[in-house]
Write a structure and sequence with these properties.
alpha/beta, single chain, 21% strand, nine-stranded mixed β-sheet, elongated, 646 residues
């Protein structure tokens, strides 16, 4: 019964969003697809069915045999580097076998053993193949030193890093070579991962985003299996003992300083399995974890100093995640632009929270009046403008309310066309921005309530960086569930909020809702940017009156080469859409469909290729990072064949 109710609600939602005809077509396509899959004997995967996902999405025996016959235009040698220390025989056997089973054959395995005593029982494994080079060091040089010794043994054009207790997928090196042929400028590559227990059960798949500098500064999401062009590794001069415990984190951060982002390639496939056992880093004791955390903290701090950023690094929400706060330079003025229509009590909650909690002092509040009809809100405006920090500007008249009169706005008369009546969020924000005095702008919905006292300091710190174009916040519903934790392009067809409705105190997929990250977009309900950025991207798109204007704005910022940052440490309550109402009339539905079409025409590439800060393996039907429950088409060979058939 619950399933039937869910399907009915789903159909109602699609009718409201896409219209009756498109919904019927979608239902027919879904039924046909299901019938075809039943005929083929395929079953729908349930969310969380990782075993089913593996079956559908990873190469079978026939695929692996085909890969072994494949000849690439470019077939460089890959040197897989493994530092050893008291390696268990079972783990070593699995490591050697996974290398011998690789479907790409031009590789070498470089083993540098820093164990106190040579384990003669391992000899029968490393002598199985002449591509395996083993060296007993006779001393423990530490993690960095042992790894550097293995690098010294390498003769390949690429250096691949792997832990001694990890396992590569049989097709891992094949996928690396495929990527190098597809993206020949790649200097650094990394892949998705999962974990494997001592009984060879796989779980906890981590489907990663493409390269994201702020995400990397808060978590070593690249982790164990990564591939460096040899020339790049030589520039980096290997690993540094001062960062043992986070030596790989340090080298990834240094790599990001000298490699262009377009030369960093993410392979969205599970290419290695991180083994979890009693001696693994996943099960470190508290002292070892503190040691590794401090090494990681030092790596980030030194990275920030090298690139000229003044940031304070601290523990994030969980172990393994860091927080970086950037110090404010100078005392720039911030304009908080708040659209307003009636709803005096709602607006009062918002403004009172800002006035009472905000610790940063150099700001103004610019209330943009739009079509209010109740006398009480105008009486409230008269009270507000007694505060030197608050101005009220009238979108419909193009004037400022001051001293119980309306005076013409100099900015408006110079810069704007005649205003129009009706609700157009983009136009209202543009009007408020153009009539603001601040160097920085905050778009803030009138139905929000501030939680974080130092919110402006946190946002200014990020936005003062030359590479950042916008910063977003974390918003909660009144029932203490998440309303917004960043936006993924493609979810729900166009774009959707991440982690919607998960508990405020809980964690979603790898705690991403609580981690500073680069994303494609953040919500306009609380969006911070430079005023100069608005001018550079020619303001918000007024053809998008209500829907997707914030996403479009962020994508225009990204198009100019800036980063968008989601900062979960800036928090608000959000009493969503109370003042504007819901999308439940024919007129609003028609407008919504038109704005969807406008967005689709403007951004076809990202809608087709996928959000770079998401992952092709993750579903676009949910906001909480579930695996897709169908076979995934990657950027690779299968996808190319499919396009050729079209």
């Amino acid at each position: 019964m619950n399933i039937i109710k869910h399907r009915i609600n789903q159909i109602k939602f699609y009718i409201g969003k896409y219209g009756f005809i498109k919904t019927i077509k979608k239902c027919i396509k879904t039924v046909i697809r299901k019938v075809i899959r039943i005929i083929k004997g395929e079953k729908d995967l349930q969310y969380g069915d990782y075993g089913g996902w593996i079956k559908y999405n990873e190469p079978n025996d026939a695929d692996l045999k085909s890969q072994m016959k494949r000849k690439f235009d470019y077939e460089p040698k890959i040197s897989v580097i493994v530092p050893m220390y008291n390696t268990k025989e079972k783990f070593f056997k699995d490591l050697v076998n996974c290398m011998i089973n690789q479907t790409y054959s031009n590789w070498e395995l470089c083993l540098a053993d820093g164990s106190p005593k040579k384990n003669e029982s391992l000899k029968k494994y490393y002598e199985k193949d002449n591509r395996i080079n083993y060296k007993f060091l006779g001393e423990n040089k530490g993690i960095a030193g042992n790894t550097n010794s293995a690098i010294d043994m390498a003769t390949g054009e690429y250096i691949a890093l792997l832990d001694h207790d990890d396992i590569l997928a049989d097709y891992a090196l094949y996928e690396v070579i495929y990527a190098l042929n597809k993206f020949p400028n790649s200097e650094f590559l990394y892949s998705d991962e999962d974990k494997i227990d001592e009984n060879d059960n796989r779980y906890d798949a981590y489907f990663k985003p493409d390269f994201a500098p702020d995400t990397l500064r808060c978590q070593n999401y690249i982790c164990h299996f990564s591939i460096f062009k040899k020339e790049l590794m030589e520039k980096l001069a290997g690993f540094r003992a001062d960062y043992d415990g986070a030596q790989d984190y340090d080298i990834f951060l240094r790599m990001s300083e000298i490699t262009k982002p377009e030369n960093i390639t993410h392979i969205p496939k599970i290419l290695y399995h991180w083994r979890v056992h009693n001696q693994s880093t996943a099960k470190l004791n508290s002292n070892a974890k503190n040691y590794a955390f401090e090494a990681g903290k030092k790596a980030i701090e030194d990275h920030l100093k090298r690139i000229g950023l003044d940031g304070e690094v601290s523990q994030g929400c969980i172990e393994g995640i860091y927080r970086v706060d950037y110090k404010v330079k100078g005392n720039p003025k911030v304009s908080i632009v708040i659209p307003s229509k009636d709803g005096k009590d709602i607006l009062k909650v918002c403004i009172d929270s800002v006035l009472n909690l905000t610790t940063y002092e150099n700001y103004e509040i610019v209330v943009v009046e739009n079509n209010s009809e109740t006398e009480e809100v105008f009486e409230y405006y008269k009270e507000l403008i007694k505060n030197d920090k608050i101005r009220v500007v009238n979108y419909n008249t193009g004037k400022e309310i001051a001293n119980h009169e309306e005076s013409s706005l100099e900015y408006t008369n110079k810069n704007r066309r005649e205003v129009k009546k009706g609700f157009n969020y983009s136009a209202i924000i543009n009007f408020g921005t153009q009539n603001s005095e601040g160097e920085y702008i905050v778009q803030l919905n009138n139905d929000t309530e501030l939680i974080t006292t130092n919110w402006l300091e946190l946002m200014i710190g990020f936005c003062q960086r030359e590479d950042v174009g916008a910063v977003g916040a974390k918003l909660y519903y009144p029932d203490e569930t998440i309303q917004h934790a960043g936006i993924i392009v493609g979810i729900g067809g166009i774009a959707g909020n991440r982690f919607k409705s998960i508990p405020k105190s809980g964690h979603g997929y790898f705690a991403k809702e609580s981690m500073i990250e680069n994303l494609s977009a953040v919500t306009g309900a609380c969006l911070f940017s430079k005023k100069s950025i608005y001018e550079e991207v020619e303001y918000m798109n007024e053809k998008l009156a209500v829907a997707f204007n914030d996403v479009d704005f962020c994508l225009k910022i990204r198009e100019k080469g800036y980063l968008v940052v989601y900062n979960p440490f800036v928090e608000f309550w959000h009493y969503e859409s109370k003042s504007r109402g819901q999308e439940n009339t024919p007129e609003k539905i028609k407008r919504f469909q038109g704005e969807m079409s406008t967005f689709e025409q403007r951004w076809p590439e990202i809608l087709d290729s996928g959000d770079p800060y998401y992952n092709v393996n993750l579903s676009l039907d949910t906001e909480v990072y579930h695996m897709k429950n169908i076979k995934v088409n990657y950027y690779g060979e299968e996808e190319i064949k499919r396009k050729k058939r079209k």
